[in-house]
Amino acid sequence: MQTVVRFEGAVEAALEKLVKLGYFRTKSEAIRAGVLELGREYKILGTPEELEAEMVVRKVEKLDREIDAGKRKLVPLDKVLKELKIRV
């Protein structure tokens, strides 16, 4: 997901200082960390295991959409193994 956000005043100053002082490499990285911290604070993320499982599901769903849209193709395992000269 892409989102464009405009910051002014104290929020802008804090974001710039976080990057300038080296806490984060980029403003985007600082914002992502802040959103994750809010998720933890409001207890909407679950356990690390639950979060990882959710991320796996999202990745698989994204791959399925790409396959359905023709952006990605599946290659049979036996063909991959043969090309890599791997015997099972």
Describe this structure in words.
This protein is mostly helical and 88 residues long. It folds into 2 domains: 1-45; 46-88, no CATH class. It has 4 helices and no strands. The two termini are 40 Å apart. The mean pLDDT is 92.
Provide keyphrases for this structure.
88 residues, mainly alpha, 2 domains, 4 helices, elongated
Determine the N-to-C terminus distance: 40 Å
Looking at the structure, what is the overall shape? elongated
Low-confidence segments: none
Run of helices and strands? HHHH
The number of distinct β-strands equals 0
Structural class: mainly alpha
Quote the beta fraction. under 5%
Instruction: Kindly provide the radius of gyration, computed on alpha-carbon positions and rounded to a whole number of angstroms.
Output: 20 Å
Residue-averaged pLDDT: 92
Count every helix, treating DSSP H or I runs of 4 or more residues as helices.
4
Main beta-sheet strand count, sense and barrel state: none
Q: Can you give the helix content as a percent range?
A: 55-70%
Number of domains: 2
